[in-house]
Amino acid sequence: MPRSVNAVASRERRRKLLKETKGNFGARKNVWTVAKNTYEKGLQYAYRDRKAKKRSFRGLWIQRINAGARLHGMSYSVFMDKLKKADIELNRKVLADLAMNNPEAFAAIAKSVN
């Protein structure tokens, strides 16, 4: 009895992966083994960078809060310390947005903690 292989499923699996690597350069888009390696590496980068994205955004928020705080004569660390002591619970994302897009509200917060 001949060996049974499910060619339909194998071809579909390959077709799906090659569709994902469409747009890559050279053999990365159409040679099965190269495309498979490219795809798997891309998934690794995606997993890693979902974590890195959170870190980089936090850094950006801190820079924006620092710039806003310095306009009111405080450093970032002093500003955050005074916020904590004044029991104002605003996260960095909101504070950074206020510092960028609503300086009047940020100024009011800075005055309330001084």
Mean pLDDT: 96
Count of domains: 1
Residue fraction in strands: under 5%
N-to-C SSE string, H for helix and E for strand: HHHHH
Instruction: Return the CATH architecture.
Output: Orthogonal Bundle
Radius of gyration (Å): 26 Å
What can be said about the biggest beta sheet?
Answer: none
Summarize the structure.
Helices cover 74% and strands 0% of the residues. By secondary structure, it is mostly helical.
Give structural notes.
By secondary structure, the chain is mainly alpha-helical. The chain has a single domain, classed as Orthogonal Bundle (c-terminal domain of poly(a) binding protein), CATH 1.10.1900.20. Helices cover 74% and strands 0% of the residues. The chain is built from five helices and no strands. The N and C termini lie far apart (86 Å). The relative contact order is 0.09.
Any key phrases for this structure?
mainly alpha; 114 residues; c-terminal domain of poly(a) binding protein
